[in-house]
Amino acid sequence: MCGICCVFRHPDVDSFKPVALQLAKKIRHRGPDWSGNFVANSTILAHERLSIVGLDTGAQPITNGDKTMGLAVNGEIYNHRLIREQFPDYDWKTHSDCECVIPLYEKYGIDAPKYLDGMFAWCLYDVKQDRMIAARDPIGITTLYMGRSSKLPGTVFFASELKCLTDHCDSIKAFPPGHVYDSNTDQITRYFEPQWFDAARIPTKPVDYKLLRETLEKAVRKRLMSEVPYGVLLSGGLDSSLIASIAARETQRAAPEDAIDHSLAGIDASGRLVNTSGTRLHSFAVGLPGAPDLKAAQKVAKFIGTIHHEHTFTIDEGLDALRDVIYHLETYDVTTIRASTPMFLLSRKIKAQGVKMVLSGEGSDEIFGGYLYFGAAPSAKDFHQECVQRVKNLHYADCLRANKSTMAWGLEARVPFLDKEFLSVAMDIDPQDKMITPEHIEKYILRKAFDTGDYLPEEILWRQKEQFSDGVGYSWIDALKDTAEKTVSDEQFKHPKPEWGDDIPTTKEAYWYRTMFDELFPEKAAASTVMRWIPKAEWGCAEDPSGRYVKSHAAAVSN
Questions:
Q1: Mind listing the pLDDT tens digit for each residue in 420-468?
Q2: Which strands sit side by side in the sheet containing 131-136, from one edge to the other?
Q3: Could you give the CA distance from residue 398 to residue 405 in angstroms, rounded to a whole number?
Q4: What is the pLDDT of residues 312-331, one digit of tens each?
Q5: Which of 242, 243, 216 is nearest to 230 (CA)?
Q6: Strand 282-287 relative to strand 230-233: parallel, antiparallel, unpaired?
Q7: 293 or 107: which carries more pLDDT confidence?
Q8: DSSP assignment of 433-445, as one string?
Q9: pLDDT by residue (tens digit) across 83-116?
């Protein structure tokens, strides 16, 4: 994962180049290992690199042999070796997994992203045609924004984060996942069109537990592509625990000469990870002292045999970090900020220990209807359509959190649940099999697929869902609400800013976050880049996203 900032057809690119490099510097946290740029005609590609694959030869932007194409990529391409085999005559310049985009473009044009398996956001500039192609991965795991300026009508800006664009663009939007931009038409078109994307089509295929299990194992396996120390985020909930269990197995199976083994590590006297272990995976957990997640994570780590690292934070440390969290996340969504703060603090600890890549469990709750409010779904059809909508909006919520909370410290998060093949399998299951019933706990079919006795302890495999912001310690959310109550006066709350329009905060906590966001980012950025995550009001659900506001939760609270 890296950071990109690209400007297409600037009328004075030579004088703007120093400005563009300063804009890219704003996201150097995403790529602390190296900086590079490519300038041709009136276009500049700037890149901040976090080196995970092709350490010695993967500097970007990448060019072809005669430098008639420049490529800046933020992401990982898991099928790059297979693509390389399809182009035996191509003059490969690097060992980077990203270089394969260039020959794909040469052969397929704007259809190139259809052939990629990975998480990515990239800009490719074709010098001869003066043509810019930009694309984002199918679900939006990797962030990308697009901006324009009324003062520069022919210029288009692209960047990994919003903060690169706010000073120069008066029109900014989140680049839609699964889409590709072509400057020849100045249009953004969808390239990712799986059957499950049509929410009106309700699947009828019964669950195949073996296929579900093996496809997730395959998704984890391909994401162990790395030449640097890696680990797993382990909350102790079902999703991260399953990913950790599978990754631990794959780590142990890796032969010493296997490239995967190069990323395994031990601990030296200073607490940093070094390449000595070769067989054991490192897991990382965060929470307030005594948090439910910490206790569960300890049980999982012991069962699967990871080298476990438990980190705690205090309420004050979380509150002190809020403004930085909002700056890096570029959102005012309550759910995302609540959950991102512990993840933000943990990511700094992980990076300090020498790890550059972690696997995480995002996406499962959207795919399987795992949030407790799904228990109020009136029908299988409603259940499925809510799943589809939640997956489509992941780039505004959990994907954004996983990407930016970690990349704030130059740590890359990979999410196996959002693998294209796994999504195809899991989203094509009859929703009747997924529904929460008195007999079936949330995500029952996922739990059942791994109920073989050797993946997880039974009490973890069948543990009730905790929203991440709950699991790190219930007092975290209570403290946020109490602080917001003290910070935002009743008078302020009664008079929201006129420029907020219909997007009016309904709680003091939401009001507090929105005002911090406004101090950091101009109003023009809010409407098209932020979406608030709230449970399904039409199902009679409480507005507060905490799982404790669902009656079925073991620690339910009243509204």
A1: 999 999 999 999 999 999 999 999 999 999 999 999 999 999 988 665 4
A2: 62-63, 69-77, 118-126, 131-136, 179-182, 187-190
A3: 10
A4: 999 999 999 999 999 999 99
A5: 243
A6: parallel
A7: 107
A8: HH---SSS-TTHH
A9: 999 999 999 999 899 999 999 999 999 999 999 9
Which tokens in the block code for residue 544? 């507060």
Q: Which residues contact 8 (CB under 8 A, 6 or more apart)?
A: 42, 43, 123, 125, 132, 155, 156, 157, 158, 183
* 258 band by pLDDT with thresholds 50, 70 and 90: very low
284: number of Cβ within 10 Å: 26
CA dihedral 241, 282, 312, 361 (to 10 degrees): -30
- Residues annotated as catalytic are 2
Q: What is the DSSP string of 342-354?
A: HHHHHHHHHHHTT
Q: Could you give the CA distance from residue 301 to residue 283 in angstroms, rounded to a whole number? A: 7
Burial-class residue 309 by CB neighbours within 10 Å (0-12, 13-18, 19+): buried
What mean pLDDT is predicted for residues 358-371?
Answer: 96
Q: Which two tokens stand for residue 390?
A: 């939640």
Which burial class, exposed, middle or buried, applies to 268 when counting CB atoms under 10 A from its CB (0-12, 13-18, 19+)?
exposed
Please report which helix (H) or strand (E) contains residue 18, including its range. helix 13-25
**Cα gap 333→16, rounded to integer Å:** 34
Cα–Cα nearest to 370, from 379, 360, 361: 361
Q: What are phi and psi of 546, to 5 degrees?
A: -60, 135
Cα–Cα dist 534/499, whole Å? 22
Distance CA 545, CA 514 (A): 17
